[in-house]
Write a structure and sequence with these properties.
- By secondary structure, the protein is an alpha/beta fold.
- The chain contains twelve helices and nine strands.
- The protein has a seven-stranded mixed beta sheet with strand order 4-3-2-5-6-9-7, sandwiched between helices.
- Helix 6 links the parallel strand 5 and strand 6.
- The chain is elongated and about 70 Å long.
- The mean pLDDT is 92.
Length: 276
């Protein structure tokens, strides 16, 4: 059987008696027009390697395979193994590799044999942010990421200083990547519909990515600053160096975290490293 001959996703789910599992944060995206648009937004050259987390019934997986990329799909829920194996058999030889494991514990470089690889996923709601932080700060660096989140999380990733959604996630994402929300998806597009809308965020690596030591410092500084975001920096960063460190970074000790842009936080990270 070829990809074109596969039954519609709803029929596949019904044939296997599969329903979304709330414990895994599952909401199925079955509209191939939407999944194809997500793949177009990912701008993937044919033949490139893609990691997909949480393929579920394989709606986004089908669109990726249609685009001619090679997919490594990581699925934790064992219920989807038969359905995904059917999809792998219908795909071109070697086009779809299946890994049944927890993506939070996966070693991506080993899965793709150290190739440069993109990440394209409709991320399960309950692990989306931890996975993003893992890919932004860990040793394995994706060539690009095109990821679907709850809209509130997408806004937090792309927010700028002064925005209500601006916080630690925005600083880390934008210090390491060019990040933009590129597509909104209403709750009604999913089965079952979640209580909130979703959005797709595209992230591409920055050429001036911080060094590992600088990135570790950035995480420490942002954790302290945004952990007490209503306090002035001189109070929230007192344990890390207080006013002398803040002034060394060229910032006002009376400012609050949500007013400091990414460049300012990177200077704070440098000032903290200088004091250690």
């Amino acid at each position: 059987m070829s990809l074109e001959a596969l039954p519609p996703l709803r029929e596949c789910l019904a044939a296997h008696g599969l329903l979304a599992n709330k414990a895994f944060g599952q909401h199925f995206l079955l509209d191939l027009n939407i999944t194809r648009k997500i793949v177009r937004l990912a701008e993937l050259p044919p033949g490139d390697r893609v990691i997909e987390v949480g393929p579920g019934p394989g709606g986004l997986t089908r669109a990726l395979l249609e685009a001619g990329v090679r997919v490594t799909a990581i699925e934790k829920d064992p219920r989807f193994q038969p359905l995904l194996r059917e999809l792998a058999e219908a795909a071109a030889p070697g086009a779809l590799a299946l890994v049944f494991a927890d993506a939070l514990e996966a070693h991506e470089a080993a899965l793709v044999e150290a190739e440069a690889a993109h990440v394209v996923s409709n991320l399960p709601y309950n692990v989306g942010t931890p996975l993003l932080i893992k890919w932004l700060t860990g040793p394995w660096r994706p060539a690009s990421m095109t990821l679907m989140f709850q809209k509130e999380v997408a806004e937090r990733i792309a927010a700028r200083a002064g925005d209500d959604a601006y916080g630690r996630l925005a600083v880390i994402a934008q210090a390491t990547s060019h990040a933009a929300s590129v597509m909104d998806i209403p709750a009604r597009a999913f089965t079952p519909p979640p209580k909130v809308d979703s959005a797709v965020v595209r992230l591409t690596p920055r050429g001036d990515r911080p060094s590992p030591a600088r990135l570790d410092a950035l995480q420490a500084v942002t954790a302290a600053a945004f952990g007490q975001r209503r306090k002035m920096l001189r109070a929230s960063l007192k344990a890390l160096g207080g006013e002398p460190m803040i002034e060394a970074a060229g910032l006002n000790p009376q400012a609050r975290a949500e007013t400091i842009d990414v460049a300012g936080f990177l200077r704070l990270a440098d000032a903290w490293l200088d004091r250690r």
